[in-house]
Amino acid sequence: MILIYILSACIAFLIFIMGVVVTLLFGSCTEQSLVYDISDNEATVLVEIATDHDSERIAEYDRDNTRGDDLIEEYKITNAVVLVYNSNKLFEKSGTLNADGELKLTLREGKKYIYVVANPGTSLKGRLTASPTYTQLNDMVSLTEDYNNGNFPTQGLLMTGSLEKAVLTGQENKVTVPLTIRTARVDLYINKGSAAVGNILVESADLVNARTTGYLFQNNNVETRAVIPFSKLNTLLQDVMTEGMLVGTQYTYPVVGVTDIALLIKVTHFEALANGEMYIVRLNDLNTNSAITLKPGYHYKVMITFFRDETGSIDISKYIYKENFFVIGG
Q: Which residues form the Major fimbrial subunit protein N-terminal domain (predicted)?
């Protein structure tokens, strides 16, 4: 009986040892397989950015050679945040671009939604780096410091861009996200219709109902608005100029189908009986209350030409010089 008991105990101990060995072997295989699967389904993605800035655009827009340096500065990028969402639009990963404007990310294989926000202010950057959901990001609105009351923000103009990318293993995954400046730029020019018009002094110029905040990835209207003075570069017009005289530049976040944006300019005409004449210039084709749209990343040049006889129209379009005629004096 004692021998049978000893044999039974030995058999039980052997079965226990075999079970432990099998468990360890299976567990080891499972762990190796899991690690292999994860590594096999990941890929490195190189994210780069591109703007629509080029030397030809500067040459086309800067015909009077007064804004070239500022145009180049408008496309300067000081910092940028990259956010990646998977095929189910769930947040996957984020990062910031390096000094070379690149970011390498390790992502799981599959469809990705890649977003870039360049030159966010400190507060907006804090929101972006807090892993926002897909909906939160697409509903996100710029903040006060991103507009800087119409003055050029110290960190640069806010830009955004996005694209979809299928990330695949076993191949190069490189994406270049095109960026667009989120604001529209309005340049105010004045000119004389003839040498018979006396000198004109610009006392003030404002962009009325400029939008001071805007969506990062939508073109819908945001209702925060203000009267923003133009940063005046020149104030006294003495001669008839081929392309007019640039008075100043101002920015607004995009608007769609609005009627309230206008220019308010106060001038003194040296031959006028009264000084400080006010002119309201609406940004549409007939200087009326018809609706207009200002697109992000577009430059609009508005030219006000002063004649002794009344006539006039106004129109704005991308990189096209348009005239607005007003009566002054005479």
A: 64-176
